[in-house]
Amino acid sequence: MIDLSGVLALLPLAGAGFGVGFLVGLTGVGGGALMTPLLISSFGVPPSVAVGTDLLYASVTKTVGGWRHHVQENVDWPIVLRLAMGSLPASIILLAVIAYVPLDTEAMAAWIRYGLTFALPVSAVAIVLYPIMMKSHTNGNGSEGSPGREAATVLFGAALGLLVTLTSVGAGAIGVVVLALLFPALPAKRIVGSDIAHAVPLTLVAGAGHLGLGHVDFGILVALLVGSIPGILLGTRLAGVAPDWLLRPLLAMTCVMRRMRSSRNRT
């Protein structure tokens, strides 16, 4: 027998997934910055479970987007490799620290909230800057690969790996804006494609680590995917109907408000 009460309890989560997916489809960014705080503040999900579940959710949705960009040849794989050289080891190290350093639930929740306090405002600024940075790259014709820039890419990958593993926030808008600064001659579509392609292994490794730590709720994960996939498809179809200059500041403001609300809730 199907537990109808359990299914009905997941409907609000599917609705939240649809809403976030719709916004991501419209604007192209903001998934992690909205979903994790939403799970914590509106649904009372423990911060560690919200992060772990959102990471696996992101690994699924970003795999679809990453494959599309790969087919369209919009991925600069050397850049993805350098990012991964920093992000994946950093993610694994942080997961090992979480696993082997004794932290109770409240301490873990506090660290995640500290991370969100930093990540969400930064992500909000990145969401606003995103279209500006992309416009400045529309006439680019290639990437640049000086040793200093390559090292900076690896270091940024490491910082992003730590941030995403702790909070699930940052793999989208923050990554795009920093890559645009590091590679000013790279076309906008390749910046976006490379950022999404790098997010796939990062969210998968971080999500798998949190799964091993017991930080994933599969009921929530399925509900989010069921809601977000049609939301993303609808948002993508309607992209351009609503003015971008209005949507992005609203999305950024939502990130900041979610940060303020989630920081007040205690697990």
Automatic annotation (TrEMBL):
<feature type="transmembrane region" description="Helical">
    <location>
        <begin position="219"/>
        <end position="240"/>
    </location>
</feature>
<feature type="transmembrane region" description="Helical">
    <location>
        <begin position="6"/>
        <end position="26"/>
    </location>
</feature>
<keyword id="KW-1003">Cell membrane</keyword>
<feature type="transmembrane region" description="Helical">
    <location>
        <begin position="38"/>
        <end position="59"/>
    </location>
</feature>
<keyword id="KW-1133">Transmembrane helix</keyword>
<feature type="transmembrane region" description="Helical">
    <location>
        <begin position="154"/>
        <end position="183"/>
    </location>
</feature>
<keyword id="KW-0812">Transmembrane</keyword>
<feature type="transmembrane region" description="Helical">
    <location>
        <begin position="115"/>
        <end position="134"/>
    </location>
</feature>
<comment type="similarity">
    <text>Belongs to the 4-toluene sulfonate uptake permease (TSUP) (TC 2.A.102) family.</text>
</comment>
<dbReference type="InterPro" id="IPR002781">
    <property type="entry name" value="TM_pro_TauE-like"/>
</dbReference>
<feature type="transmembrane region" description="Helical">
    <location>
        <begin position="79"/>
        <end position="103"/>
    </location>
</feature>
<dbReference type="GO" id="GO:0005886">
    <property type="term" value="C:plasma membrane"/>
</dbReference>
<dbReference type="Pfam" id="PF01925">
    <property type="entry name" value="TauE"/>
</dbReference>
<dbReference type="InterPro" id="IPR051598">
    <property type="entry name" value="TSUP/Inactive_protease-like"/>
</dbReference>
<keyword id="KW-0472">Membrane</keyword>
<feature type="transmembrane region" description="Helical">
    <location>
        <begin position="195"/>
        <end position="213"/>
    </location>
</feature>
<protein>
    <recommendedName>
        <fullName>Probable membrane transporter protein</fullName>
    </recommendedName>
</protein>
